[in-house]
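Re: 4'-deoxy-4'-aminopyridoxal-5'-phosphate structure - here you go.
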Amino acid sequence: GPVFDAYAIKKDFPILVHEKVNGKSLVWLDNAATTQKPQSVIDRIAYFYAHENSNIHRAAHELAARATDAYETAREKVRAFLGAKSANEIIFVRGATEAINLVAQSWGNQYLKAGDEIIVSNLEHHANIVPWKRLADAKGLTLKVIPVDDDGQLLLDEYAKLLSPKTKLVAFTQVSNALGTVTPAQQVIAMAHAAGAKVLVDGAQSVSHMPVNVQALDADWFVFSGHKVFGPTGIGVVYGKEGLLNATEPWQGGGNMIKDVTFEEIQYHPSPNRFEAGTGNIADAVGLGAAIDYVTKLGMETISQYEHWLLEYATYHMKQIPGLRLIGTAPDKASVLSFNLKGFSNDQVGKALNQEGIAVRTGHHCAQPILRRMGVETSVRPSLAFYNTCEDVDRLVTTLWRLIK
Ligand code: PMP
């Protein structure tokens, strides 16, 4: 049974307590798109603007010191959350999309040349396809794809055949946003490294559902978005191994990243500053730090166990509904319950759920290749977080039963 009290935890999230949709209390099952924010995160951002707001030039004056301390404390929280060796390995960006573009356009642009190969998986979000495809087209690289089976699991035997000395990068997701598949990340990374390739892990859908340790994974880069882990929008993270980051030319140029500039020569700071040109999203980095405090207090292992139990509960009850096809049936899944309902468009299902105050996403979830691989263009996608309860799942299932009757 549940190992913690999701009903009590829900009370920390004002939107889940107070908001009504169509006269019904809100059931938020769109967590793969974005997550709701606990009061502690909302309060922390307000506190920053009320008491600490400044640009981050520590030495300038008192508030600059406060803002710098708050920002660097948040960086340290991210370091601990990911199990990174050094806070110098944590770069703040806008989100997972910007994070992947940063790696593609800095490291990729510097180190990859015509004939090199990049491997992605069939499960990827467009954010982990488009930057690589654009780079491949621009530089004459080859993009290869790890196929999946009918349950949505990576085919590791096929992956092994794709790897060669030409492989320079493997970029793949730890959890699929469209199917919920948890990939065998450690194995995928070890196989890539054995072939001499670097590895980028898209953690956008994993960090909110399971403990992550980038050193245990041995990822070269690991990226995620703050807003999917109960933090604010507009802030995200690139983790990269320190040596690799310092051997990479910056992506954008400007203030904050510079050791010395003349019109003849530029010297960059080491990481992280070399990748943080211009004034960053200081307040939301601080807000992300508060979100990390929140989930760390609950415990990622505890969250993972509770969500696993809730996902099994939801899967069992959804499978009883005649005409409901679950899309993505891997044994190892997190959060996501993509489906189609026979006789109803996904749009009709989404509207019927919204009528009852239940928020789910319908569409292609920015992951068209994997939905097409599963034989569909779109799906209805409820996705769970630790603040969801059995009652939330029951309301979803009851509404679906009422729809088909
Ligand atoms: N990768 C995955 C697996 C995602 O689910 C998402 C967000 N849907 C992204 C990348 C991109 O994240 P963002 O839009 O926050 O940059």
